[in-house]
Amino acid sequence: MFQKFQRTRQALIVNHSSYPFLQHRHVVTLKGCFLTLILGVGLLIQSVLLPMPAFSESEEIYPEGDKEYFKALIELEKDEEYKKFLLQSVSYAGDKKVDYIDYKGVRPTVDGQGADPADTETDAAHFRKQTYEAMRDLDWFRKNNYQNFIRNVGQNIYPLIIASDYEPGKEGVGSTYYLYRRGLPVETVTPTSVMYEMEKILAHLPMGVFFLISPYFDNVANRPEGWEEPLIEYKKHVENIKDVLEKSDMSPATSVRALKMLDMVHEYLQDCIANGSGDEKSYSAFAHNIIPFVAEAMKAAVELQTQAGLSAMSQWKKELGPQEWDKLHVVIPVVWPVAQGNPRRQLFEHLMTPERAKTNIFEVHASSHDEARTTLGRIKGDSVMASLTFDKNTPFGMGSYLRLSSPTDLVQGATKEELKKYPKTQENILPLKTPHSN
User: Fold this and answer.
1) Closest CA to 304 of 171, 165, 192
2) Res 84: pLDDT
3) 3-state DSSP assignment of residue 353
4) Bridge partners for 180 per DSSP
5) What is the pLDDT of residues 282-337, one digit of tens each?
6) Taking Cα atoms as reference points, which of 204, 199, 205 lies closest to residue 304?
7) What is the pLDDT of residue 20?
8) SS3 of 357, please?
9) How far apart are alpha carbons 6 and 27 in whole angstroms?
10) DSSP class of residue 53?
11) Cβ-based neighbours of 361, under 8 Å, separated by 6 or more
């Protein structure tokens, strides 16, 4: 349509420009206005039919990752009180704890670097080696101070709750919570009752059977001598529980369900031991029969854990008050198989505002409270550094700030773009051929 319009407009211009009266100055001016009007209408039609990209208006671009988290971080920038709190956490003034540890003793070494033995002190290779060693000295000094920086930041963030379930002697008891407040002793609580742990143990019964019988799934006919001994021991544990369960004060409904589950485990183990059975099919049949009872035990455990945890943390929330609770950070030590959707995060998400739940709860891989707090120091310390270092009004600056304030690697975007230069080979796209494939 636009091309047809242009051809018609061009014909008008050529045909009418030869008329004598059009050579008059006023007529020429009128002709210019007329042509401008025609061109404007043409561009308007083109913009409707074929809209051009608006280069002057760029959309907000976030790195790959949790977009809701990135948005919450940007909103957090508007909270002046919280920004002041973070700045204070990176400062060691006043009565804040400051420790300095020399990490140089674990400095890595690199073999095969530097100049050759034949190089003299006047060779460029010699000075390259000198430069390399001097730069490594500077960088290790930087790393050493960074380790101390993040550790001290983590030690200066209050209030803090560490919600752990790996404490020695308290594994699997439904979480132990530690409240750190500046200038006060650490408070700790393990709110769940023993019934929670017992329900959880019942839910794990088929798992315990699987560990013992699965090594022999493919070797039913030729098992080694003594293979059944762990099964015999597990069966004895089951029998011991049955002996005392009926005499306990557990609720009738729970007691009946528990006895049913224990009987099913006992029967399957007895069949495996007496008849040398126990392959994947028999285990799967046993598991399918017991799973409905496992689901009931899991539901009961979750109810007990949620009620106890919510009650205990609500009490701490009341003690802290609105202002301190608003600054609360929660660190949840986890391992990879249970890193997402764990009950501890859900509990605090329920008690915190959506904004704080996004920016102040962290699952971390840590084996101690010191390591957990150091990781928190790295998260928040890096964020403060990035906020002051990068110009967040530029795409590069905003992207760098968000990456350094999140689990996303700083060079994630650059690496992705660089890899585009190297097309994937056929082996990377199609399934690899195996000796049995056609």
Assistant:
1) 192
2) 86
3) coil
4) 160
5) 999 999 999 999 999 999 999 999 999 999 999 999 999 999 999 999 999 988 87
6) 199
7) 46
8) helix
9) 22
10) P
11) 329, 330, 332, 345, 348, 349, 352
> pTM above the 0.85 mark?
no
Query: What angle do the packed helices 194-203 and 252-275 form, to 10 degrees?
Result: 40
| pLDDT per residue as tens digits for the range 135-160 | 988 888 888 889 989 999 999 999 99
**Which structure tokens are listed for 58?**
């760029």
Distance spanning both ends of the chain, measured CA to CA? 55
Beta partners for residue 163, in sequence order: 177
Q: What is the pLDDT of residue 21?
A: 42
Q: What span, in angstroms and rounded, lies between the C-alpha atoms of 333 and 162?
A: 8
Q: What confidence tens digit (pLDDT) does each residue in 204-222 have?
A: 999 999 999 999 888 777 8
The answer to whether 362 touches 24, Cβ cutoff 8 Å, is no
pLDDT tens for each residue of 365-401:
998 999 999 999 999 999 999 999 999 999 889 999 9
Task: From residue 124, give the alpha-carbon distance in Å to each of 119, 127, 138, 154, 227.
Answer: 9, 5, 21, 45, 68
Strand pairing report for 176-180 and 160-164: antiparallel
Question: Distance (Å, rounded) from C-alpha 139 to C-alpha 177?
Answer: 38
Lowest mean pLDDT among 171-175, 234-238, 292-296, 346-350: 171-175
Task: Give me the helices (H) in 327-368, please.
Answer: 343-351, 354-360
8 A C-beta contact, residue 69 and residue 359:
yes
DSSP state of 63: P
CA distances from 288 to 213, 254, 293 (A): 16, 20, 10
Structure tokens at 237: 């544990």
- Over the stretch 81-114, which tens digit does the pLDDT of each residue have? 888 888 888 887 666 666 777 766 556 565 555 4
pLDDT at 27 over 50: no
The residue among 294, 41, 331 whose CA lies nearest residue 180 is 331
Task: Encode 209-262 in three state secondary structure.
Answer: HHHHHHHHCCCCCCCCCCCCHHHHHHHHHHHHHHHHHCCCCCCHHHHHHHHHHH
Pairing state of beta strands 361-364 and 176-180? Answer: unpaired
CB 205, CB 294: distance < 8 Å: yes
Instruction: For the sheet with 160-164, list strands across it.
Output: 187-189, 176-180, 160-164, 329-333, 361-364
Tally the residues of the chain: 438
Token output for 380: 């928040």
